[in-house]
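hiii, so i know i said id send this last week but things got crazy w the move. better late than never?? heres the sequnce for the chain we talked about at the cafe, plus the structure i predicted for it. fair warning i was half asleep when i ran it
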Amino acid sequence: MPKLEKINEVRHSLAHLLAAAVLKKFPKAKLGIGPVIENGFYYDFKLPRPLTEVDLRELEHTMRALVMEKLPFSGKKISPAAAKKLFKDQPFKLDLIKEFQKDKKPLTIYITGKAINAKYQIPDTKYFVDLCRGGHVKNTGEINSEGFKLTSIAGAYWRGNEKNPQLQRIYGLAFGSGKELKDYETLMEEAKKRDHRKLGKELKLFTIVDEIGAGLPLFYPKGAILRRIVENFIIEMQEKRGYVPIWIPHITKGELYKISGHLDKYDAMYPPMKLKGEADYYLKPMNCPHFMMLYKSEPHSYKELPIRMTSTTTNYRYEKSGELSGLTRVRSLTQDDCHVFSAPEQIEGEINLMLDMIDETYSAFRFKDFWVRISTHDPKDKDKYIGDPKIWKQSENILEKLITKRGWKNEVVPGEAAFYGPKLDFMAKDVLGREWQLSTIQLDMNLPKRFGLEYIDEKGNKRQPIVIHRAILGSTERFLGILIEHYGGDFPVWLSPIQARIIPISDRHREYAEKILKALKDSNVRSDIAPEGETLGKNIRGGELEKIPYLLVVGDKEIEEKSVNVRERHKKETFVSSVEKFIERIKKEEKDR
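okay and structure toks below
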């Protein structure tokens, strides 16, 4: 059995043991769901009182005792009627049974602690039964008692809907050994230090204000500079390759999204703006339809193709409040969006151009390890997609061929395509080994038909172009959140909002500091002067806390020698340099990235 499948069986089994332990402590507890998640598991409960840290440790102790008993897991199919009787006192389980019955899906139960032919009821302090599809160890003896830990408690609405009851969610970690668990906890401690929400506040990069709304970040000057540097990197790279900028508005009539299919297929749109005497308007969740209409506004010849349109623009999506997180999950997300309108024979060349840019971007930002998820449609779920299945298959084959040819690690994942076409999702690892979904390329042979897009071929016939959707950063906000954690706020010189800070030893050295500042700014070195009225030590400490790459200390000696005393970030030793040589050093680091 593959290692991941085996550890997931352990994690799923531990979720059941957690529920059994909770029922032992709270016999009238109402059970939600307990799935496997990355690195562990969780289970949702409706309980008579809020849980505490002491409760977690007690539940964990009970789970370890159950592990040592080597309890068996066994399962069988059950009829809806029998399931309803079995779970008659469990409203959330009854809700699931009703849903499964409606979808005509088979029901199965798993019992922990005795053979399946035993008689059992819920709650039961000796045996535990759950509505479950399975995937368990044969008995709890296969679970390493030192390899798991209950970590935290959080609130969670039933089925993720704010209108439903709020439950208590207990999270747990689970690994194959105590060492793996400890290694992971060490990694998470480092992740806490790098948390972009923490560093965003400490480094004055961004904030989120209640009066404006969750998921709607504001950027301080340093954060705005950082996002401008990142966005300009993409803009300059793509414009060198023949991409042209466009601009599109942030609201539109609902009719546009009827044409595109978003009104029927996309569930994260904000409600319409009801304007007296006018059509309904919507905040745009996607840019594709605007690009399509701009293309359609003029006639096109095959001689113009490919047409590579780009726009760095913000979209607005109604993400659930409980899923919002700093910059990595927001309601206002800015995309480095691109749509290429091409002839069929140009598809491979255009996608290869995009793959080159993605490769260059990951290299520049030091994402050394990535793989590609080839997201295809699920032929069993036809209602989820638009277009001809033959066209889908053709598009999917093209994407798979191009990635395979490059020798990049990849995995084909059915059912993860956009509703209008298959896509490539790029999964990159940060310095802590965590995976993030960044770039995306989508091959679209369906929306052009819905929008009636055309071009005239060399024989004078009307043809339908292919559209390739592309975003390299994915979302500027999310990319910045990942970037802050990837570097731990220690941005390389080319990315640092402030590259150098000048620190005069006393007020009489400030005039010289101002001259240096002018020379740096004239050379486009992002720099400032330390605040007045503070000691030298405090200003140095402040610059270190702000993670500024270079601190330039100036006093009598530096004035006399027309130099600066350079303190490099995280280094105790200093060195003396002329201003000109220091500027050369900065420019070289920028160029080398």
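btw Residues 3-193 form a domain with the Threonyl-tRNA Synthetase; Chain A, domain 2 fold (CATH 3.30.980.10). thought thatd interest u
miss u guys!!
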